[in-house]
Amino acid sequence: MLKILVLTAIICLARAQQKLYSQCGGIGWTGPTTCADGLTCQYQNPYYSQCLAGGSGTTTGATVTTQSSGTTGTLPSSGGDSQFPGGQFKHGLAWDGVFNDNDYQRYDYISIWINSPWSDKPSVTDFNQYWHGVMINKCKQYKKLPVYYAYVIAFEARAKFGFQDCDVHPTNNLCHGGANFIRQNRALLVSRYAHWASETAKALGDRNAPIVWLIEPDFWQYYGDSTQQGGPLSGEYMRALFDDFAKEIKSQLPNAKISWDLSAWIREDGMTKWWGYFKTSPYIDFVHTSGGQGQAGSAEYKPGELKWSDFSRITGKRIIADCGYGIGGGLSNNCGVWNLDNKKARIANGVIALTAAQGASQQQPNLERLPLP
């Protein structure tokens, strides 16, 4: 009996040790606080401490215990977070008029795009109690996690100057005027994040409530597109801007998780360099796709682009994927390809969640809650 108890204790201890890049402390954190052998739990900010190699950083006081260490680039453990992603693959559904309450009850989280211009007041991009507020209430009613796609820069530029996505209009778009818009309106953009975080905290009724923010789809275009008027922004500028956005979120919603946008078409050298500006940010919990057109049935995100596994290998982060969203916000009928076998393959590549947009009304993904490694 004693041997069984000792063995059980050893197994539990091993399971409680966090791998490289996993969270190990912070305000509100209730998961494991010890790291695998060769790693230390290093303080990043009051809300987040992370298992990192070596011991040069300030630690949270977590004890480093013995277990075979992970190598650089290995995926962080999905365990220990009771909110998101937890131990199982999560499924989300977009807040959209094509779905009803029965649909939302079958999914784990509800997503919505924020800062979009109001239909009756296109110059206004504030929190809309009749749209975003209703979505938050629905999350509370059915105990679903709210997930924000924060397209703040693009929607603000559309409201102010009518800028469109780069694949929607050939010249009056964010690939030409986006960088200058940011230069001239940086303080405004940061204040928009403050507004959305504050109003969301009020709507949730609990500033410590869990929520996930997916920051700025197509963020790379302001840095990497050579057609930007006045030239693109530097990587250092973009990192500082990202961190300022995150600080506003955390100041109002300290338990928020934050995700960094992926650009699969920039190839490995481009992604490695681009990620290099952000890899030391203390605010990035996940990475995400946002074009809705990734191929679940292929190792490559899209033909000739980076592989799904490249995203997690380069960043060391787990992936929130999406489907059912096409050019200009239209419908893309590709959610059905996320069947059981393809989902298993993508989980092996580091995908931990899938947001289904309008296309799920035509073909829904497999909704089995598979265990995460």
TrEMBL record:
Protein name (database record): CBM1 domain-containing protein
Which residues belong to any copy of the CBM1 domain?
16-52
GO terms for MF: cellulose binding
InterPro entries according to UniProt: CBD, CBD_sf
Q: Name one GO biological process term.
A: carbohydrate metabolic process
Signal peptide segment: 1-16
User: What keywords would UniProt list here?
Assistant: Signal
Keyword check for Signal, yes or no.
Answer: yes
Q: Which GO terms describe its cellular component?
A: extracellular region
A Pfam entry, by short name: CBM_1
